[in-house]
Protein 1
Amino acid sequence: MSIDDRDFRPVIAAFCCNWCSYAGADLAGSSRMKYPAEVKIIRVPCSCRVNPMFILRTFEKGADGVILCGCHPGDCHYSTGNYYTRRRMASLISLMEFVGLERGRVRVEWVSAAEGAKFAETMNEFVEHIRALGKNTRLEDLRCKN
Amino acid sequence: MQKIGVFVCHCGTNIAATVDVLRVVEAAAKEPGVVHAQDYPYMCSEAGQALIASAIRDKGLTGIVVCSCSPRMHEATFRKCAERAGLNPYMVEIANIREHCSWIHKDMEEATQKAIILARAAIAKVHLNTPLAAGHSQVTKRALVIGGGIAGIQTALDIAEAGYPVDIVEKNPSIGGRMAQLDKTFPTLDCSACILTPKMVEAAAHPNIRIFTYSEVERVTGFVGDFTVDIRKHARSVDMDKCTGCGLCQEKCPSRKTPDEFNRALGTRSAIYTPFAQAIPNVPVIDREHCIKFKTGKCGLCQTVCAAGAIDYTQSDEIVSEKYGAIVVATGFDTIKLDRFGEYAYDQSKDVITSLELERIMNAAGPTGGHLERLSDGRMPREMVFIQCVGSRCSDGRGKSYCSKICCMYTAKHAMLIRDKYPDVNVTVFYIDVRTPGKNFDEFYRRAVEQYGVNYIKGQVGKVAPLPDGRLRVSGSDLIDGKAVEITADMVVLATAIEPDPSARRLASMLTASIDTNDFLTEAHPKLRPVESPTAGVYLSGVSQGPKDIPETVSQAGACAAKVIGLLAKDRLTTNPCTAHSDQLLCNGCSACANVCPYGAISYEQREVNDHGVRGERRIAVVNNALCQGCGACTVTCPSGAMDLQGFSNRQLIAEVDAICR
Amino acid sequence: MKFSYYPGCTLKNKAKDLDRYARACAAALGIELIEPDDWQCCGGVYPLGKDEIAPKLAAVRVLADAAEQGNQLVTVCSACHHVLKRVNDDMKNDADTRERANRYMDLQRPYTGQTGVLHLLEVLRDRVGFDTLKEKVVNPLTGKKIGAYYGCLLLRPGDVMTLDDPENPRVMEDLIRALGAEPVVYPYRNECCGGYVSLGDKELTGRMCDRILESAVGFGAQMLLTACPLCMYNLRAHSDLPVYYFTELLAEALGVKEAAQ
Amino acid sequence: MSELTERIMEISGADPRKCMKCGKCTAACPVAGEMDIKPHQFASCLAKGQSDLLLSSNTLHKCLSCFACVERCPRDVRPGRLIDAVRQCVVRARGQAFLTPEEIPELLDDELPQQLLVSAFRRYRR
């Protein structure tokens, strides 16, 4: 491992639904559970608000990993939103694989408002995984960089 | 160009200890459009809010960003503050630099960098915010309480007393719940039925309360202030208006072998039955699964003996549809199944019982007439062993990881009552910890030890082995002496873990109320909003939210009622303006959005559209703002990108993404 | 029905009965048992240390051989069954063991826990079915009151063995019932007999066996049934009660005992 | 944490800090009466970092690895694995055995199954 690798600080965006996962992240915070500062959370009303285009945009902008968190299937605040998420993301993930992006740069996780520990664990694991994958060079669009 | 103010909160040291607040202010001030940036120790305080208000007024701010705790905590506070200062409340964004930053990181540099990025994202978003106006909706001034135990009864009584109509839905033939099954209550030892029955009667007689027993919630639609609920009233096969409650049918019923649920299946009941003598309503139901008439067509004895002519075999389930402003979940608990705890021999010996079964054995109306005896041979036990934490505090996947909270106290109660009534019976309690945090609780437990001579052994039991002579060898450990001990007992009582009633899970999905990994309903905030669900208009009462004893349940039921009354007292509610809308120039009327909308909020209109000078009539999606809840499903489904969501627009979210990746 | 069959070292020596009757019963029930050409002792105990690889390799070899044949692997000895199932579980679920074992073994194809390991009792219950078995019984053991003795290795740890409820098992009782006899359920049937401690401390194993036997006799057992040669050794040393391998009574009921001898 | 404690946790893959001190392991152990240090005390000594106390315990040779403690532990501490890990630390360090091959012949009898010998040897020496 080169020095550069060790210093690699991935950019990771986490889309969290307001009702479950964002609250789960809050609980992780108020319980003082640690996870890496690389993770930046974007609040959305429901995981189904996340357009696959947002995720592609995030990668174009140079993010190394994107994680989308919503309520557990069956527990969606809007009844069915996360079912749409599940279907859309399954397609997106196969598409990303098809175009040659490393497996695992996009992840979908269900985290409830009560699962602060799961949120922290998931983030620790995801960041670790992205660190192992290294920098996202395949989708990054230099023209999009400021 | 917006004129943006950024306000960075120290939250005492909660934020400032890990985030260099001044550097965040400095960095924010350099962002385009930011004309004002400052920090303050407590932004949510009156003085902090005054700072924000004066900055809005003095500098003519058009949008503000508050870098502070979670928006779930204080977004509403800062929106109100902005409104008071003349700024549209939806021109406020929060950067969560506490829960999502200072509290989870240790390194100051790292946390400060992250806080700056979160602030930038919020600034980028607020640039694209537009003033929004909240709409209004009506409030149906009636509440629904699901579950007719002490939690549901107390909540219903308190709401009814405030003058609002309440319906209680109870799945069993009578209200009363678990408390009706208890013999005595701690820490005063008063008789459970004696203090519960008057409340049941009061609820039944209250002009504002309707009780649907033998009924279940089937469907819930709508939202806070305007729920529509379908209630299935199971066919009772007895006419509630005609029945006089004489009980003759139950006496004459020839089918008597059904396990009696009220007595935890320790005894049997007739097929036509009321669960217990003080049942409310005092009208029996026919259990069709066990009724001879329904099974074979031959019998009809109850109909013959009923002088009031109340028996009606032709009744069928009925669906009642009603509107409610608020819904209270009070579905209570059951004890866990013990099939994964074979070491305690619950399935192998009749004399190993759960504490709830002991309640029935100790109760005068129970299967043994209140006489303490072994269920195997009817003999009086001489040596009794209680085992605590059976299935509670288990993180190995067999039981529940939480403490069931009530077991230490009811075990002390049982031990004390037995020693009081039968001084010759030796009582040993195996415990891991005795937990008695409650008024007069520890004193109560100590009385069991000091006054009643109950033998408390600190240690868990490893095996209960039935012996050929019918007794039970209990192998436990005594941690104070550091050794293994064995007691030959006549009866073993298991303080079995409690879990939410199985109906809670189904109900939670119907109500879109969140539920935790143990199936307890989640509260909106664990400390500050303990009786509200995160789903507006849904409230939590009793054990459905977490383990509780009776005093706590009653307090929570009252608190829950106060919240419901607060809601029903309003004539109208402001609605969330963060709703979807379609761009009529982009919409091609394909119906994709309407297909995914869970609220039926999208319809189509023929509209005259001027598309770059070309006039024509088009089919356009129209969102009903009163129905739209703002999930955003339609925005992603729309193939032409015509649908967008106010407050979380495509451009706003992309601005946040860009700011984070910068 | 065709399975790879691992007898284990004890069944080739002191516990020949357990093996002989197992083969005879399998044949009578239309089960083909194929013994691999060369196998080694499984080690008798499962190595508990997470860093121990070498003592697991003999088991991996047998498992990998069954995988090559495309068979599931059947055993009758409690100890072999215990070791094989647990090593297989490691090969399936513990990446470190899997990787290191494969590096040592230099197999044609890497082994990743794909072989299903079954105790003969599981085959009887889940493949043959006790109802079918009952129909094949020619000498029902009517009137016999039999206590099943499971011991520790067969059942625990329950999440890996998955043979039965580790605290309140019933597979042997169901077998006894299928053979026409009456099972005697007694609470100490899943408590340890003392195992290999009897090598140095016969007194201790004596006390442990006494407790088991006292319980079995107390509930009316006239004989005991076991699947483990070590349990057999310890129980016989301390009991007047006859102790049989389950395969022997099965052979008797199926009418193949004489022929097997 | 001492190096020894760390080694024991690594070899056992079990975590004594999960223990809630209920004593169910000792209660479930069929030979707890013979042990100088009981199974629950193993977990607590390790959690406190007093692992050296355990090295000379007779528990190392009394434990049958029957897994009653492992099966019944409500916190998934797996005391049986902890005991075995300590035992391994002892035999690995000492390079000598509780039982030597020379001692074996006089312990044998005609009925003794091979399984017993193999098991005992695996457990008692390395």
Protein 2
Amino acid sequence: MDISFDAIPLAHYLLLSATLFVIGVMGVLMRRNAIVVFMSIEIMLNAVNISLISFDRYLNQHDGQIFSFMVMCVAAAEVSVGLAIIIALFRNKPTVNLDEFNIMKS
Amino acid sequence: MELLIFYPLAGLCVIFALGVVFNKNPIGSAMSLIAMMLGLAGIFVLQQAHFIAILQIIIYAGAIMVLFMFVIMLLNLKGDDAVWKKREKNTLLTVLTGLLIAGVLYKVLEITSAGEFDSPAHVLETFGTVREVGTILFTEFVLPFEVASILLLVAMIGAVVLAKSKVD
Amino acid sequence: MFSYCWIILFAPIAGFTILSWYGNRMSRERVGMFGCATVGLSFLVTLVALSELLLDAEKQKGAVSTLYNWVTAGSFSLNLSILIDPLSVFMLLIVTGVGFVIHVYSIGYMREDPEYSRFFAYMNLFIFSMSVLVMAADFFFLIVGWALVGLASYLLIGFWKEKTSAVLAARKAFVMNVIGDVGMIIAAFMIFDHLGTLNFLDVFTLAGEAFRPNDDAILLITLFLLVGAFAKSAQIPLHTWLPDAMEGPTPVSALIHAATMVTAGVYLVARCHVLYELAPYTMYLIATVGVVTAIFAGSMGMVQYDIKRVIAYSTMSQLGYMFLAAGVGMYSIAMFHLMTHAFFKALLFLGAGSVIHGSNDEQDIRQMGGLRQAMPITHITFLIGSLALAGFPLTSGFFSKEAIIINAYHSDMGNIVFWAIAVLGAAMTGFYIFRVYFYTFVGQPRTSVHAHESPPIMTAPLVLLAFFSLTVGFGGYMVDDFLATYFGMHMPHPDDPVFETIGVGAGLVGIAAAIVFYMTGKDRLEFIKQMLAPVYDLLFHKYYIDEIYDYLIVKPTRATGAFMEEKVERDGIDMAVDQVGTQVREVSRVISLWQSGKVRTYAFNMIVGVVIILMFVVFQ
Amino acid sequence: MEPIPAPSIDLVSLAPVLVLTVFGIMVLVTDLFIGKNKSALVFISLTGLLMAAISSLAKYDLPVYSFNGAYIVDHLSVFFTFIFCISSALAILVSIDFNQREGIKVGEYYSLILFCTVGMVLLASSTDMIMIFLGIEIVSICLYVLAGIRRNDPKSNEAALKYFLLGAFATGFLLYGMALIYGTTGSTKLTIIAEMIREGSVRSEPLMLMGVVLLIIGFGFKVASVPFHMWAPDVYQGAPTPVTAFMAVGPKAATLAAFFRVFAETMPEISPSWGILLYILSVLSMFIGNLGAIMQTNIKRLLAFSSVAHVGYLLIAIIAKNSLGSASLMFYMLAYAFMIFGAFGIVILIGRKGDENLEIENYSGLAYKHPILALSMTIFLLSLGGLPPLAGFVAKFYIFSAALKEGFVVLVILAVLNSAISFYYYLKVVVYMYMKEPIKEFNITLSPMTLFVVAIALFGTLHLGIFPGPIIALAQY
């Protein structure tokens, strides 16, 4: 059975993807909590996944799904390292407020 | 039919994404993020990407978010982050991100009107199944798959090096 | 062919290397001997090359000796090579010859200095750099030499690093030189862009076909080259570093800031005369700037009290004459004046050095006086140098300067205005140098410091240079013949007795004016009795003429000079240069402030960049 | 069900990656069995790097594509593999004494450097966007960890955090760009993308261009070009000095190699659209980098800003997009490796335990106490500035020639102007070393390994400067 997809043009998915990406960017800019900033970055990655998978559906191939699979891998890797950094940081200075980390500046 | 599913799901995703950004409590943010990811999984299903949808739930909503929650709990973070502490700067930021949004949306709408991407391809029923994705993963994309293992190894080493408690 | 000429380069760089590593462990005599020997060797090799050129007219077309191919990029390659032709050998003779004499003099002058070996190391480095500059076979190595002499000059001006003014002067000279270097580099890129080569011989062959006269391209190229030339030769408006450079040791002033480095700009114009001939507008500019610098610097020289600064301004002024000559197309006359000037100006600086040395590091001429008896050899040689500078008949300066002045009017590109200003400048020259002479050597000692004559190692070079200052003028024809192959023409000898007489007279009038104003009492009477009785009678019949002159000429002149120095130089040009520095630092500070240390600021800036780029693409 | 077709696998092509991975794991395992003395690990790591370099020559008759066109062994990748092995080896050598002095006793340090090298090799050899993405991530994650490896040092922590957050942020952009390019060309393989662009059969030109722009942003961050450079000074300052040197060379070279592949080799047809952006980034990087460096008082920050400026020069090679451009990129990175490791080697030597002496004024009077160190530092700095006849000059010369060949005269003139500006701050350090009185005692332990690195770097800087012919011939091959 063929599935028809006439109802939703690709652009809607791309729009959703772009919107989520921008929300992620806003989160990075606005929040001071390192962990929330980090979560916002995850939103950005997820937004890209939507694009990849929508393109796949449109192009009738699986490369994008492989790509998004790899993105998940990378996200997992980044999360583990990133949270480890935050934990190491927290040991020396018990805060996750990004504005308090500015020993180094010109 | 798809429209009926897509728009509510998309709306929920956007709302939860905003929830991540505007929630004062990190735990609330994390919960919103999980909800958003589940919503995205729904959208993936809608696009026939069953395998990825499942991975989305298992890896993201499952593993990654659990790690987040774990760290938030471990560090015992409270909602100490006033989002709008510095008004003037944030206004500027908002204006700029607004510009960014305008730029991106403008671009996307332009594409839409160009009509290049109007009709999606007709795909087989097997599209996006584990078998299909797995086949291509182990043939055409076998190298990235293997390299991903190095990546995860590195991440593991890194996490251990940075977070282990013994101080030397 | 000419591969032995590499010795000219290797000897001084070897000297530099050895002296900077082992100099501290060598005895002072050894250091001095060694430092001079390397330059002497270069000089001897230059003589060999000269004889080869003279004996075989065929070789005067020039030959390139290549050591090896350095880098190749596509069709373009850079070879490590030197060009030996009459022009480069001519310059080398001055560089190594005068350089050698000044090295010998330095043995005596720097005797007391604790960092004797460092001084000779730097001096050798300078000789090496200057040799690179004049022997370069392409624009690339020309620029390398150009930058290297700037570096050597920086090191030598700032040699006494505990002296703040010296360090500041060194920095100023360096900055000015870098401005020039950048101009040269831009010019080189443009040449490469248009002709696809940087090699002198190729460039000059191709230029004639590639450019039409006064093309935009050739005008820009020549102008950018000129930025380099003017910066190096201290022409307006890039001149302010030269007077300050006098903070360095006197032999340095003699070698770098009189005889050799500052003449590099003139050499550049002469070397690239093919290009300049394609750009008559630029030639006109050269002549104009030259002649303006000549009187501008002359007028400033008249009001200075530091003996070295007077001579420094005089150097600027004489360089202006050289540019005037080059600008009106009389390259070999420019080179001729370059040579005579190298001798008598080196002589004057070394004489000044001897004076400073003999009177316990005093540089203010008002504190000197009556050194005639105490320093007889210095006195005589300085007088000879002054006469040559003023263009006193039959001294070397007379021949070269006369040729310039007369050609400023008679050459195709000359005109009466150039001539008139040049004559005025000649009068100023006579005036300011004899002002110094009288202040220093004539009259009564003004302080109780007991002056003494310098040791023979210092006076011998003076005598040698004095001899040449008197005699080289007669070699004008030889110089002309020798360089004619390169410039493709002989220098003309316009026959115009009236203008010539006025030219000669101007210098004499200047001298006379100095006598009038600066000889006092007994000395003046004595001197006048001996030498200029008729003029004295004429001018000094009544004593109040003094006052009239004072009001009509001296005070206005002095005021102009002071004004020039105050307003134009300090407030105008120096300010501009300072402002550039200040603004650069200000920008740098802003960039640093931007680096606030906060991640969110950084992310924010990234997004600003992203947004701007996206907008750029979206609305393109 | 039809059987799954066998994948195309070419392990010989992958030899350096495999060798490095195996040795990386070997280091990890060995670390469990040895005590505090980590010299065995150093030995294993260096052997691994040497073998990886040799094994990169296993393929001849280049270029060879493998893994369905995801991986290539060509001249660029082999040359860069050598650069990576050299720079990683220098980084390890320079770390030995430093780690001992500063008490970094983490065996994983060496394996992370090896894994990072794996990532770099992959990055330089990949012709698939997925692979490039994974390569960048392997390299980045290793660097995040290495930057923060001094866990008790707040500066190191902070550097890791800043680098990590901004790096992950930039990854988002990079990824988005890749997604858009994938969507509009229908493939992640660079060869197919190139073909689509050549034939003009890209689905949506504007969307594709947006992808390209986002890609530039992502790459721009990874190589620290303005305006995405702001992490560099802080991270360079906070990271342990050997890591700083390491990240200034290897990862940057790898990213530039990928940058060159993606832009100059894959999409030369649409170069006007990305060329102008790179042009602007290049000019901004040069100016902001050089002007920013002038006021710095910390030597590591100064070198960080100077590296931003160097990225500006290097981008010119990509803008030039010709074969001379790739050759000059290779030569430049090799020369840069020597200059940077030389300079940082001396920075490490000047430091002491507990007092790293990173302020420029701490270099006052070095020339009197240690003339050879001062002279070496002078040579490295002047070479970074581009003084003939040193390596930095020849490197710049080739990049500028490549650009001139394509007619970018103004860009080259701006670059030369910037080189002139850069001398201002390089010479500032030299002036401190030669013309100022020491402000405190130098208490330098001349650790042999670091000296060895400085000696190699000195040799490299001089040799590449005076006799560049053979190496440039190899690069142009």
